[in-house]
Amino acid sequence: MPKDFYPLPLIDQLVDSTPGCELLSMMDASQGYHQIILALEDRKRVRLISSAGTFCYVAMPFGLKYAGATYQHLVDKIFCPQIKKSIVVYVDDMLVKSKDAKNHVTDLEETFNVLRSYRLKLNLGKCTFGAQGGCYLGFMVTQIGIEANPLKIKAILDMKAPTNVDEVQRGEDEHAIGKTGYIRTTREMSVELSETIYGGHLQVGKIATTCGWTFHDSGQWCRHSHHFAMWRRFRVYYQV
């Protein structure tokens, strides 16, 4: 396969475009990359050697370096008229969104027509149609905003507060600051959260009290928050 440096979309931007939509439909492509047929000249480059002989892949297998970019390039091309209007696509994960519930069936029909014309199939077991909210790319998306995914915050809720500087500095143990990254990227209080933790890091005497409040506060916020992020317009001013 030729090298394809086509960029993948930013997950945060895709998710942030969903609030404000009355109905959502989450869809997953069946068999993923296997739905893309390899060109004849490329099949000899993707071979499988076994005791029964040497075999060539007919469809694009998983594990190729540029498989994700190739698939994203495909879906961006075929869904171009709908993207930024009624659909967001990340590789094989699709979300049809309608600001007006009355238009949702029409938006779905348009999507199905595209899938049918390119002979792409869906995994119905992983699809949800006409919902007011659901899980997409690891986030719980709803009409009013983005909620914390219970599966994603379990580690934060179960995490013990660090009691000394060494535990704060560690990056991959049970007291990892990195575990709060899931909420720090979207939470409006992310600056306060980081300042409190690192402030405690710098002041050894206050580490137990400061970080104890921070980790407890983070867990309580994740457990009770119904408004993880909110879509809103903003202006950027710049001078040339």
Automatic annotation (TrEMBL):
> Domain of life, per the record?
Eukaryota
- What InterPro entries is this protein classified in? DNA/RNA_pol_sf, Rev_trsase/Diguanyl_cyclase, RNA-dir_DNA_polymerase, RT_dom
Reverse transcriptase domain ranges (all copies): 1-141
Task: Cite the PROSITE patterns for this sequence.
Answer: RT_POL
Write down the Gene3D superfamilies for this protein, in alphabetical order.
Answer: 3.30.70.270
Xref: Pfam families: RVT_1
Q: What is this protein called?
A: Reverse transcriptase domain-containing protein
Organism, by scientific name, is Sesamum angolense
